[in-house]
Amino acid sequence: MAVAVRGEARAIEDLAPAYLRFPTQAAPALVIEIERVAGFDRVQGPEYPAFQRRVDAAGRLRVERFDAEGEIETGDLPLAARFRVGPSANSLEACVRIAASVALARHGALILHASAVEHAGRALVFTGESGAGKSTISAMLDRAPARKIGDELLVLRRDATVGAWSAYVPPYLGPAGIAHGAQAPLDSVHLLVQAPHHARTLVGTAAALRELLRHVLVYVAEPRTADHVLALAADLTREVPCYRLEFRKDPGVARVLGIAYPGAAPA
């Protein structure tokens, strides 16, 4: 999905290191107008608070917190969004993520709090609550024949023409070494549980849907966005294997995932 972020040079320069490496000639499905406001801290809040949200009389999604405020159209693509943001680069990116989450749901895609490794040309995705081990497991598996491709955020998109899902690593401000722009066909989704052993159990569609929705990043305040997200998540859990993955913090978990490292003991 093509996104255009517009504003004065100073308004969007914080995004340049990650975002501007992916230019496209495609018509944007989302246009975001940014105004940076010095000292935007009307009521100081916690470091990463949730945005308050509501739908205004014109049907736009309005969001606000101490360091940013804005509105997002909620009709059909292309969408437009406008934000007034304080001086923090993280505040700016939070606004971009919100707008993208609304537009992507209309584009056949979901943003998921997850990590991933690529193995045999396909993506194994790991999701769970904060502290469940998303970063830990992808780091442990990051050696040939597997490689870590994503951490924190992934976009899972369904190609409606062929009914297949792929995982994409979107640009975002974060730690070095993330393979922004990487993509791979989606092999499976793993719901993480730390345990004293390694075990992988296939999860039924209904249970997988309930769990997956807890980790989708989207700001929903009106029925159309909710309908898009629910339909996509239902398709994903019906069409892609979803597993409960119990694991302890050692690379032996690779064996239950079907990853065979050279020299490793057989399962």
Summarize the structure in words.
The chain is α+β, with helices and mostly antiparallel strands and 267 residues long. It has two domains: 3-107, no CATH class; 110-256, Phosphoenolpyruvate Carboxykinase, domain 3. 24% of the residues lie in helices and 33% in strands. The protein is built from seven helices and 14 strands. The protein has helices spanning 9-12, 16-19, 89-106, 134-140, 205-213, 223-239, 253-256; strands at residues 3-6, 30-36, 52-55, 61-65, 68-72, 79-85, 109-119, 122-127, 146-150, 153-159, 164-168, 183-194, 199-202, 242-247. Helix 5 crosses helix 6.
Summary tags:
267 residues; alpha+beta; Phosphoenolpyruvate Carboxykinase, domain 3; 2 domains; six-stranded mixed sheet; five-stranded mixed beta barrel; 7 helices
Give the arrangement of secondary structure elements.
Blueprint lengths: L2 E4 L2 H4 L3 H4 L10 E7 L15 E4 L5 E5 L2 E5 L6 E7 L3 H18 L2 E11 L2 E6 L6 H7 L5 E5 L2 E7 L4 E5 L14 E12 L4 E4 L2 H9 L9 H17 L2 E6 L5 H4 L11
Parallel strand pairs: 1-2, 2-6, 8-12, 12-14
Antiparallel strand pairs: 3-4, 4-5, 5-6, 7-8, 7-9, 7-10, 10-11, 11-12, 13-14
Helix pairs in contact: 5-6
